[in-house]
Design goal:
2 domains; four-stranded antiparallel β-sheet; four-stranded mixed β-sheet
């Protein structure tokens, strides 16, 4: 949630004068409205009381091939089987010379299950873009991932597992999930706070438009400005392994006091640098080729 003080500082720097406090409070209320569940997450179905927990889902898909598992992931998420804490969006502020933007993001990576029993679930680009579109979200850019880490309250230490064909197995998904949970408990993090550092992000980049059929990954920060994984499109779009995470960004962002589609901002040459460090990104082309 954006505080009145934060908005006051932001608008004072950007406009060169102080807004009246009453107007400032109104702007804060406006931001709060769009951080709330009814506006930005209304397309996510409610979770059924009979939905599987993360551990049960892992057991069900453990003997499926990767394509079958992706179908099962999509089915569960489209049915609303994700933890409630992911429905409480948090704000992240990004800046450029042209503008200041406030984006609204899930505090953690997409997961299947309940608040008490969930599995952070890697998925390929096809599944990720499908569920993002279904929920009214987009994937982050490299700049957004960096900003998420810099502004995160819960910073994890990356925990790589031995490389090999097992990296794509459901068992590895479970092992890594358990390692993250152990670190979470040890550091006494809160579920509704912005968390980062424990996965590589699947991201939007112009490389995907230039070379269709790939998935782009980036992140897994050791510290601010120190990602383990540089931006890479080495894997095909159908690839996913335990180290990948899907962070969803609400499709609308607050820019200049107005809500604008993130895809529109990214495709606007004058504003794109607010959310991207590679200039304008042709989101529509990337989604079409996913």
């Amino acid at each position: 949630m954006l505080s009145a003080d934060r908005f006051k500082r932001s608008f004072t720097r950007r406009n060169g004068f102080k807004l009246a406090f009453s107007a400032l409070c109104a702007r804060c209320a406006h931001a709060a409205e769009f951080t709330g569940i009814p506006d930005l997450i209304r397309r996510i179905p409610p979770r059924s009381v009979n939905a599987m927990g993360g551990s049960q889902f892992a057991e069900v898909v453990s003997n499926l091939d990767r394509q079958q598992r992706e179908r099962a992931i999509l089915d569960q998420l489209e049915a609303g089987n994700l933890p409630d804490f992911l429905r409480k969006l948090v704000t992240v502020e990004l800046r450029s010379i042209a503008a200041v933007a406030t984006i609204f993001v899930m505090p953690e990576y997409l997961a299947i299950g309940s608040d008490r029993d969930f599995l952070r679930i890697p998925m390929n680009l096809h599944t990720a873009t499908a569920i993002a579109g279904r929920f009214g979200f987009v994937l982050p850019t490299k700049k957004i991932v960096d900003s998420l880490y810099e502004q995160s309250v819960c910073r994890f230490t990356p925990q790589p597992l031995p490389a090999g064909p097992q990296m794509t197995s459901t068992r590895y998904y479970q092992i890594h999930n358990a390692m993250i949970d152990e670190q979470f408990r040890a550091r006494d993090f809160a579920r509704n706070q912005l968390a980062a550092g424990h996965k590589k992000d699947v991201v939007l980049t112009n490389r995907l438009a230039r070379v269709p059929g790939r998935i782009a990954i980036y992140g897994w920060h050791r510290a601010a400005g120190m990602p383990i994984q540089p931006l890479s499109t080495v894997h095909g779009a159908g690839y996913a392994d335990y180290s990948h995470g899907i962070r969803l960004v609400a499709r609308l962002a607050l820019v200049g006091g107005k809500l604008r589609p993130v895809s529109e901002i990214l495709e606007d040459s004058a504003l794109a640098e607010t959310l991207s460090d590679e200039g304008a990104i042709r989101v529509s082309s990337i989604v079409a080729n996913a």
